[in-house]
């Protein structure tokens, strides 16, 4: 059984003011609830441990990130943007420090993660944990895409076709952004 919690103690104290038959019911219900929570807690811990070891095993054996479920492993994010690419993007981005409120998160890791998601076709929830919460990256991407900033960033990072090499195919990231 799990130990008594503060809310559980409050419920039991309120139950003391009820008739004895009702108090007996409340007490039995509290015991059942704590037993049930203990069983559920053990099951959750076991499931998380199993998923964690399966994720680590798959990632180490395939060189990629394997997420829960049966999705194929994703390639790990590339080292990121080159310094030349970052210098082309930097003037397009909004100021890093907002006028009010808490400081914003740095743009560069977020931009690198957005590009990785689009290049790999991964879902936002498949972002590796060391990149931070997927919601942070997705919300910034959504705002930038709605304002048209993401199209300008994509154009700045798009490979420049070299006439000596012949025509080059652009990744779907750039083709999709320029169509819309």
How is this structure best described in words?
The protein has 180 residues and is mostly helical. It has two domains: 6-65, no CATH class; 77-179, no CATH class. The protein is 58% helix and 2% strand. Helix 4 crosses helix 5. The longest helix is centred in the first third of the chain and has 43 residues, at 20-62. The radius of gyration is 26 Å and the shape is elongated. The termini are far apart. Residues 66-70 and 167-180 have low confidence and may be disordered.
Major sheet strand order: 1-2
The span between the termini is: 58 Å
Number of helical segments?
Answer: 7
Mean pLDDT, to the nearest integer, reads 77
How many structural domains does the protein architecture include?
2
* Largest sheet properties: 2 strands, antiparallel
Q: What share of residues is helical? A: 55-70%
Rg, please? 26 Å
| Secondary-structure element string | HHEEHHHHH
Binned strand content: under 5%
Number of strands: 2
> Which regions are unreliable across 5 or more consecutive residues at pLDDT < 50?
66-70, 167-180
| Coarse structural class | mainly alpha
Described by its quaternary structure, the protein is single chain
> Tell me, what's the shape?
elongated
Provide a compact summary of the structure:
This protein has 180 residues and is mostly helical. Helix content is 58%, strand content 2%. The protein has two domains: 6-65, no CATH class; 77-179, no CATH class.
């Amino acid at each position: 059984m799990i130990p008594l919690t503060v809310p559980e103690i409050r419920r039991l104290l309120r139950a003391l003011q009820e008739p004895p038959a009702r108090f007996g019911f409340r007490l039995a219900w509290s015991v059942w609830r704590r037993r049930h929570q203990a069983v559920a807690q053990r099951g959750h811990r076991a499931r998380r441990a199993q998923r964690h070891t399966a994720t680590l095993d798959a990632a180490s054996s395939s060189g990629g990130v394997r997420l829960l479920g049966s999705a194929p492993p994703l390639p790990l994010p590339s080292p990121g943007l080159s310094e030349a690419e970052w210098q082309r993007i930097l003037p397009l981005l909004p100021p890093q420090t907002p006028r009010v409120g808490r400081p914003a998160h740095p743009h560069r890791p977020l931009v690198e993660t957005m590009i990785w998601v689009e290049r790999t076709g991964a879902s936002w929830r498949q972002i590796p944990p060391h990149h931070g919460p997927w919601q942070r990256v997705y919300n910034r991407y959504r705002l930038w895409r709605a304002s048209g900033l993401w199209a300008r960033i994509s154009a700045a990072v798009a490979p420049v076709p070299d006439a000596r090499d012949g025509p080059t195919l652009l990744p779907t990231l750039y083709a999709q952004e320029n169509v819309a």
